[in-house]
Amino acid sequence: MKLTFLGHACFLLDDGTHKVLIDPHLSGNPLAAAKADEVESDFICVTHGHGDHIGDSVEIARRTGAKVFCTVDLAGAVYRPAGIKAMGGNLGGTAAMPFGSIKIFPAIHGSGVAGGLACGFVIEMGGKKIYHAGDTALMADMALLDEENIDVALLPIGDFYTMGPRDALRAMKMIRPALTIPMHYNTFPAIQQDPHAFAASAREAGFAAEVLNPGDSIVL
Ligand code: NI
Ligand code: MN
Hints:
The chain is of the alpha/beta class and 220 residues long. The chain contains five helices and 13 strands. A seven-stranded mixed sheet has the order 6-5-4-3-2-1-13. A six-stranded mixed sheet has the order 7-8-9-10-11-12. A hairpin with a 2-residue loop joins β9 (119-125) and β10 (128-132). α4 runs parallel beside α5 (195-204). The protein is globular. Nickel (II) ion binds at residues 48, 50, 53, 109, 135, 161.
C-alpha cells in the first residue's frame, strides 16, 4: 500500500491493483508533482467543489475512465452533466469499493456547489485506514475518528481557508492517528506555513508526523 503526495491536497493511494486519486489539483499548481495528462487512476475522490480540489478531475476521469467518488450534490452539479461516471454518496455513508471502502466524513467548509456540503473521506485500502480531512475547520466531531483507528491522517494546516497548524494539532490529538501528514499549505500566498514546525510540534506532543514533499511516497 503506497501513498504519494502530489501537492496541495492531492494524494494517490495505490494498493498494487487499484489507484485512488484524491483532489487532483495539478494544472495551475506550480508545486504539483504530476501532470494531469499522465497521472493514472481507477477512482477519483473529490472532497468539494472548489477549484483547488476539483482540479483536473473531469479531464483525468475522461482520459482514464476513472469513476469519481463524491457527494451526490457534487456529482449532480459537476460530473454527471460532464458525462463522467460518478458515485454520489452523502455524509456518514460508507460505500464498499473493490479495494475496501470509503466513508464520507463531515467537514466544515463551503461545498462550492449549490445545496451541497464539503466532506472528508475515511478510505480503507490495503488493510490501512486513511483519513483525508478535505478543507475543514477544526470540529469536535473529529474525536469520533479515534475509534476508527486511523493509520494516516491527512490534515490541512494552511490556515485562512481551513484549520491552521494550531488547530490541526488539536485535531490530531483527538483523532490519535498512527501518522499525521500535513497538506493544503504553501500553494497560495494566503496559506504559507512551515510544515516542519508543525511536524516538530506533533512529535513534541508524542505523535508521529511526516512532511512529504510533492512527489514523495511512503509505504504503509
Ligand atoms: Ni475549499
Ligand atoms: Mn482548498
